[in-house]
Amino acid sequence: MLFDNDRGLISFTDPIFGDKYFIKTPQELIGGILMIYCSMCGWLLMCKHRRRLMFFNPFTSDIRELPNSPYLDTYCFSAPPTSSDCMVVGFTTRIEWHVYIHFVGRQPSWRKFRLNF
């Protein structure tokens, strides 16, 4: 998957057959996709400028923004954001090890837990 901000397109390449598919980039995603962290069930967990996390489904063009998060080294999610069981988990190893958890269908905040190893 490749974002082409100049042409406003997202291209997909089939890893088996090499066929290419194109979709128009939604306006909300133009200019500043930094990283795709995780994908599952057709959803991408990605970061836009200034650490704005969001879910994006390229097949439906559905976008779901998440509350601001602190800087984290990595993120993953447990289920599609349409599921009541969806939670996003992020880890950081700066100074001390912490895990941050956000329950998507619940409170609009992150919970922080210190990891003692």
TrEMBL record:
InterPro entries: KIB1-4_b-propeller. Keywords: Membrane, Transmembrane, Transmembrane helix. Residues 21-113 form the KIB1-4 beta-propeller domain. It comes from the Eukaryota. The chain crosses the membrane at residues 29-46. The keyword Ribonucleoprotein does not apply. This is KIB1-4 beta-propeller domain-containing protein. It comes from Helianthus annuus.
